[in-house]
Amino acid sequence: MSTNVPSESNNKLLAAEITLQELLNEPYKFVPSHIRKYTDHLPQDKPMSIEEIAQILNTQPFIVSRLIRALSLSSVNEDETWLNISVVQKLIRIFNSTIDVRCLLLFKMLDANNDHYVSRGELSRFYTSCLETIKYVETSRVPSVIEILLKRYHLNKKRRIRFDEFYSIVMNDEILLESLAIFTDFPTWVSIVKPSPIRQNIIQRYFMGCCQQDYNNEELTRKITFDRLKDNVPRVIAVLLYILVNIALVLYVIIYRVVVTKANVFVVFARIGGMLLNLNCSLIIVVMLRRSIFLIRATPLHRFLPIDDHIDFHKFLGRFIGALSILHTLAHAINFGITKGYSWPVFMFTTRPNVGWIGGFAPLSGVILCIILLVMIICSMHWIRRGGHFQVFYWTHLLYIPFFAFLIFHATNFWKWAIGPLTLLFLEKLYSFCTRFKPGDYIFINIPQVANYEYHPFTITSAPEELGYIRVHIQAVGNWTKKVYERFKIISENGTSGGAFHVYRADQRAAVNVNDKITTISINIPIECEDQGGGVNDNLSGSSTTDEMVQQSREKIILNGPYSTCARYIFDCNHALLIGAGIGITPYASILSSLMVQFRENRVTCNHCQKVNYPEKNLWDNQRLKKVDFIWVTPDSKSFEWFLDLLCQFEKDQAEYLKSNTNKSRFLNIQLYFTGIKENRSVDQVLRHQVTNIWADEMGSDIFTGLKSPTNFGRPDWEKLLRSMTSGDNSSTAKDINVFFCGPKSMGKKIQHHCVDFGIRYYEEKF
């Protein structure tokens, strides 16, 4: 039996060699059309470099160089290599040939000196070079990976192997065989050179944007269905009620001013604008009462009020108030121009005509209000807030204080509309909220040593059960956060933080340019106030220990909060799907930390054998939340090691629990997607597939993250993902699933669209 194996392998080798040579010598006219279409747009006789071929094949120059050498596609020295598009066509044909040919191709790539053997050194050097091209594999892990690969190819016991041995190993190894099968389909992974986009001027880009926006609005209108309206009943009722109230006020003004006072048309329009301003200027206060919203979220009222849209509604009200102010001002200005008795400048800029309820101050206060409102609106634009000028936005937004003061002096009846909201706002500013925060809550942080008056919102990443401190993670992506990073990096490196500050860096080189690398700062802020509730007060200082050096380097950190978000609803649903993109995972860090603490508190350790057991009636039997799916989409895991540690701990605890309770199902499922590595059918993927899957098979963990859950590449297929959760084994009904998202708006819109199609409730984290 053993004597037939080499003979059979030799026959396979001979057949593969013949097929390979036929493909290499195949005339162009016999090349299949589905391969030609990927290369016909390129000049047939134009010389091409290895780098150009690598770009077309979507792989690395190192791989192309090995392929050309293995297939003897160039008979001259590498420095004088003359290649053309026919080389690409031949490589594509070989990639899509039989498994035997692909196995022979891999053998030839590993056989660097072409002596018909693959040695330990050849395999080690080849895969070491490959690992350098595979992103996010730690350099310190490379020797271990090579050792595992040598063992897989039986080169841990032998110095070298022939093709017959190599072929037998591959054919009997499921992972190696599966990696070679990746090229079964036609090469959709080949990069097609697209024509350069037509350059457009500012006006063309503007109108193109308008057309695209109109198209999106039309698409949205067509997608409004009964199910969508049914899932958004609180929003629909709130919008209808808001519209009806505005219409009612308009009708009241028209009837009163036309029928009773016989006013002219300009006065009527001015009074319509004034009445609607009374309402909307009061509402804009109400929608930003964060502590009131915080309390509402803790009650059943949140099911009937669309409080998660309060920030979007605040922005809408700001724009609507601006439009109403223009209507109100223009109508009064025209009316003053046609009114006899005083000149127009006297009406507008003096108190002599005695217009208004306090010393004729209405027109002049109106001018002041217009100036204040104009400054606030301009400085609230996205390009101001997100363009490195947050402090401008912050300071100008404080003009709401003189704005409402002048508005009370300006409008006779505005105080009646605003007394309730302003009273609540005043009480919120005075009230120090002394209670333990909830998972997913956020706080506003001010660090005077960085900027005296800038407050920025950050999600609390520690669990409420972790008493004595709160933890936040700050990503260095803006001017303020980069300054915070630079300051705390020095404190962390000097060792004077006492463990209160830790900096997670995107790379570990000594010199880090924070303008090029994304970094994350983990800050533990000890709570110094004597708080009976164990919570957070305003104006707290962060310090770590009584050590003299640490006391000298203590940082004053002023906190405002905590405030709640839609993450509060996670514990009210049966099945929570948590989706975070990049730093958007921070709201879920606190939630997962809290769940893990509760999980650990529920276990019992035997005093005799120290074995960990879990009672039959466990934690999940006592709460509504039964299942959590966590999806994290990120370019890479650098700067997020702290979060990976949390996931690893949760996986370990869950594995112990399932081992002790075989009748229980998994509570937390984790899916990671690295967008920095593209999912494509290229040579790189064959090698990456081998490395990642062999490592997982041997070590039982993912090579990139160390988790039991494998890492996916590219972006998730949201429709496929949601369908898998609503069908199949252990699936949930659409009504039981609640999706919680924190990340870019563009991604959120796509997810929301699919949630609407499946009838799944969708929540989005907004600041």
Write a structural description.
With 767 residues, the chain is an alpha/beta fold. It has three domains: 8-117 and 162-188, Recoverin, domain 1, CATH 1.10.238; 227-434; 567-765, Rossmann fold, CATH 3.40.50.80. The chain contains 29 helices and 16 strands. The strands form five sheets. Strands 14-13-12-9-15-16 form a six-stranded parallel sheet, sandwiched between helices. The protein has a three-stranded antiparallel sheet with strand order 4-3-8. It is elongated and about 110 Å long. Mean pLDDT is 76; it is low at 1-5, 75-80, 184-197, 210-222, 504-518 and 528-552. Residues 401-538 form the FAD-binding FR-type domain.
Low-confidence stretches: 1-5, 75-80, 184-197, 210-222, 504-518, 528-552
Please report the number of helical segments.
29
**Sequence of strands across the biggest β-sheet:** 14-13-12-9-15-16
Q: Ends: how far apart?
A: 71 Å
Q: How many beta-strand runs?
A: 16
Q: What is the rounded Rg?
A: 33 Å
Largest sheet, in brief, is: 6 strands, parallel
The share of residues in helices is: 40-55%
Dominant shape:
elongated
Question: Please, how many domains?
Answer: 3
Query: How does the helix and strand content classify structurally?
Result: alpha/beta
Which whole number gives the mean pLDDT?
76
Subcellular location: Membrane
GO cellular component, one term: NADPH oxidase complex
Organism: Rotaria socialis
Pfam families: FAD_binding_8, Ferric_reduct, NAD_binding_6
